[in-house]
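Working notes for the structural subgroup meeting. M.R. asked for a predicted model of this chain before we commit to crystallization trials. I am recording the input and output together here so anyone reviewing the notebook later can reproduce the run.

Input as submitted:
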Amino acid sequence: MRLVSVAIGVILLAFIAVLATRESGDGTASKSPLIGELVPKVTGESINGTDFDVDDFYNRWVLVNFFASWCVPCVREHPQLAEWQARNKEKGIV
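Returned structure, recorded in C-alpha cell form:
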C-alpha cells in the first residue's frame, strides 16, 4: 500500500512539473492574415427585408453572429445579444 502511495505521489509531482515548465500557448496561436484588413464588400437583403450594405457601417463595430435554429446554445444567446446591442447602441455598436 505504501508503494502505491509513493508511486501516485511521484506521478503527481511529475505531472505538476510538466505543467509548470511547459510553454505558454501564446506562441503557438496562429495569426490570421485578415487582422488589420478591410472588411470584404457585403451587400444583400437583411432578415427584415431591408437592403444591407456593409459600407453603411463604416467606422463602427459590427458583431456578426452565425447560428442555426437547431443549435440550442445559439437560440439561448440570441435574446442576450439583442439586449447587449440595445444597451450599447449609443456607442455605435451594431
